[in-house]
Task: structure prediction
Amino acid sequence: MNENLFTSFTTPVILGLPLVTLIVLFPSLLFPTSNRLVSNRFVTLQQWMLQLVSKQMMSIHNSKGQTWTLMLMSLILFIGSTNLLGLLPHSFTPTTQLSMNLGMAIPLWTGAVITGFRNKTKASLAHFLPQGTPTPLIPMLVIIETISLFIQPMALAVRLTANITAGHLLIHLIGGATLALMSISTTTALITFTILILLTILEFAVAMIQAYVFTLLVSLYLHDNT
Amino acid sequence: AASEKKLLEVKLGELPSWILMRDFTPSGIAGAFQRGYYRYYNKYVNVKKGSIAGLSMVLAAYVFLNYCRSYKELKHERLRKYH
Result:
């Protein structure tokens, strides 16, 4: 049972070849592009959604921050689509791997911080000390703010990994419990099945929310630094 | 004679020579994938009143391929007396 629970999170390898590359690239198939003004329903739907999200997310930035639009929109599309695809049966979710999320979080956070330090050095350094702190507390507060700054990329990556992994694990466990309970007592199995339905709805929401949160936080770090 | 025919028009005896005539260079294989993709896209998605079927067939194939990939681990979880 213990080994079975986590085998769904191992990276897929077929005959020693990394199949995981294909799985990571698969969502790109689901986002076709079109040069036309009026394209098919699928592309129009996606363009509408993308416009909605980009307006909501990039409106707070100045022109320097808005150069990051492409990056942040691709980020939210990628995380959202990989999370949602992971809810299909038997599929592999790349965002459950901490390595991948660190690979997304660290460069983006570093880019935002370095942009801040290069262009607005005084303002970036000023972030280490909130306004109006009493003088004796200053050294300790600077240390705390530094720690809280450096923990940002770790928190970004671990938040995404933990949420998605925990959700998948819960679905596995409750689904297994439902199956096992069916032969023992059908009523309990029905209750467990209802829990499973609710959990799946939650997981759909979490999949999209996590994408949103990740991108929103990167965008906030950017806003601080441009 | 057997070089440029489509697959369904090739006679059974000519099949080995037809397979050998195909373009197995990387650009040939890429071209085959591209042709296949656009065949599916233009038939089911890039139409005036596309429905959910265009997307769901792709997702169903994805689920099926993932099932095939993980069959080796899944067969231990069947309800059998002896595994």
User: Anything to note?
Assistant: Chain B touches chain A through 22 residues (CB under 8 Å). The mean pLDDT of chain B is 83. The CA atoms of residues 49 and 63 of chain B lie 25 Å apart.
